[in-house]
Amino acid sequence: MAIWLTENSKIIVQGMTGGEGTKHTRRMLASGARVVGGVNARKAGTTHEGLPVFGTVKEAMEQTGADVSVVFVPPAFTKDAVKEAIDAEMPLCVVITEGVPVHDSTEFWAYAVAKGNKTRIIGPNCPGIASPGASNAGIIPADITTAGRIGLVSKSGTLTYQLMYELRDFGFSTAVGIGGDPVIGTTHIDALQAFQEDPATDAIVMIGEIGGDAEERAAAYIEQHVSKPVVAYVAGFTAPEGKTMGHAGAIVSGSAGTAQAKKEALEKVGVRVGKTPSETARLMREIMQAR
After folding, report:
1. How many CB atoms lie within 10 A of CB 62?
2. Is 38 annotated as a binding residue?
3. Which pLDDT score is estimated for 237?
4. d(CA 160, CA 47)
5. pTM of whole model > 0.85?
6. Is 20 annotated as a binding residue?
7. Residue 109: what are its φ and ψ, rounded to 5°?
8. Is 139 within the bounds of a domain?
9. Relative to the CA of 136, which of 20, 41, 92, 160 has its CA 20 to 30 Å away?
């Protein structure tokens, strides 16, 4: 059992024939994920990495039964690629591309809502989603952890990998990298709700960072709706005010969006917050050992 991505998921790759698309298609296939084709209008009817290339997402879905798309296209073309997946009613669209203009992300997110929210968007600027032992859609390394009963939702790709590795002895049901841009398709709250409802997830790790109020809103949601234990880490305790740190959404203004404010909001509702990623892993290890 997992959230959103299972062993039965059939994946297509938009931009499969490009350099990044090719590399990560190979990695997804090597991990055992069911990648069934790619999309490139200019190369429709050919094969790439032994897989058929289709002209449109709709055609790929009709021919393969795909229910997940992973987007590896340049930023200038990402909006159109995601809107194409939305028009085809692709259930899950994982947008890996970094550097997508915020107004483009806003536009395709609003487009998905206007079309009835039939397409869940993860990203952009994210590592994707992995259900260890079942499937892998994106760039999360497949060999750093095992299948287990921890759920993970994270704004940071590298911290996703670190926590997955440090808790590999317990393993994960699903790890979701939601991305650190100011506008993203899937939020901490979306993942918290899914993990709360997933019978195969016993506890949740949440990784946030400075900037915005996503973690404060997640804290309020946890207080009302999440009964499973949650541990968290908030990146950016040493970030100077007004300085963008890595992610476009990670900028602090005054007291709003600081790591300390987020930590206090989370601890107030019973979430244990680690001072470092390794301490966060230790807190989760204590919870799992006590079960």
Report:
1. 12
2. no
3. 66
4. 33
5. yes
6. yes
7. -65, -45
8. no
9. 41
pLDDT tier at 246, thresholds 50, 70, 90: low
- Smallest CA-to-CA distance from 276 within 142, 163, 148 is with 163
**5 in any annotated domain:** no
165 and 28 assigned to the same domain: no
- Residue 18 belongs to what domain range? 10-122
Segment among 43-47, 70-74, 213-217 with least mean pLDDT: 213-217
- The answer to whether 161 is annotated as binding is yes
Do the domain assignments include residue 68?
A: yes
**Same domain for 117 and 59:** yes
Alpha-carbon gap, residue 178 to 140, rounded angstroms = 12
Tell whether 21 is covered by a domain: yes
The answer to whether 98 is a known ligand-binding residue is: yes
In sequence order, what DSSP letters do the residues of 239-269 get, joined into one string?
PPTT---SSTT---BTTBT-HHHHHHHHHHT
Catalytic residues: 247
Alpha-carbon torsion, ordered 174, 180, 182, 184, to 10 deg: -30
Contact 96, 123 (CB under 8 A): yes
Mean pLDDT over 256-277 rounds to: 91
